[in-house]
Amino acid sequence: MGEYAENLYDLAQANKWTKTGAKLTSLQNTAKRLTTEYKDSADADLNKSIAALNQAVAAKNRQATMIYSNQVTLIATKMTVPFQPKVPVEVALLDYYGRELQIWAGTGNTAKLKTTTNEIRKTWDAVRPSIESHRGSVPAQKFDSLVTRLEAAKSSSEYGRIATPMLDEVDNLEKVFN
Length: 178
Description:
Elements: H1 2-13, H2 20-37, H3 42-58, H4 62-80, H5 89-107, H6 110-133, H7 137-152, H8 156-176
Helix pairs in contact: 1-2, 1-4, 2-3, 3-4, 4-5, 5-6, 5-8, 6-7, 7-8
């Protein structure tokens, strides 16, 4: 489910609307199956986010599609916690926060950017020891450098310039566990 939501985010970001319908349908079908199998308190939030995402995609609203698809990735990530995934949940959260940086840098919302940066720092501090213990010292150093740059950022354009390299480094953090 998270993967479909991330695909929708990427398609909206690139303004590629022709493939969003199929991805949205796949996301909705997966969500329906999951909420039937696993009754969870996240169901209401998931259903609201998917409904909002459906409207955003129908309207070809780039910003709203990015926001709601990213929200679905967060819900999907939280739903995986009880299953103790191979890649720590915190790494998926860093992916979510990287997309948040892109979203809020695009709107110039520095308050949201600062809040997101604080969440990145907390999440990074929590997961870094696990990454280093899996022989991930090189990607850990690179990611730590990006977090330091984020914390020094003053403008939305500075945050925006760091967001994509940060998302690329999250991919490298994921590889440490695969």
